[in-house]
Fold this sequence. Notes:
Layout (H helix, E strand, L loop, with lengths): L2 H18 L1 H22 L5 H21 L3 H21 L5
Helix pairs in contact: 2-3, 3-4
Amino acid sequence: MTTSSLALAPLVTLNQIILRHIEKIEMVGVLMRIFSFSLVSWMGAASPFMFVWIFNTIDAVMLAWCSSLRRDRAYTVLNTFWILVGVVGILRAGQIIH
């Protein structure tokens, strides 16, 4: 085995675990997204925005990874976009950028 293949071994193992449980992981990601947007809808300006952005970004990572493993380009692009939006939201909620 080469050094580069040894470095990728944990990622390959993680991908295999995700593929075994992909439907459950996707459902958790979707429920997380529904929860975070519902929280903002119900609470409005009183929402815990940092929590919502972090939570939403985590579900975007989960869903982007799953859609990437499924080779679903449309959902990979969509969820990668949500990761980027989430990073900006986290930076704004943390008042790092304005």
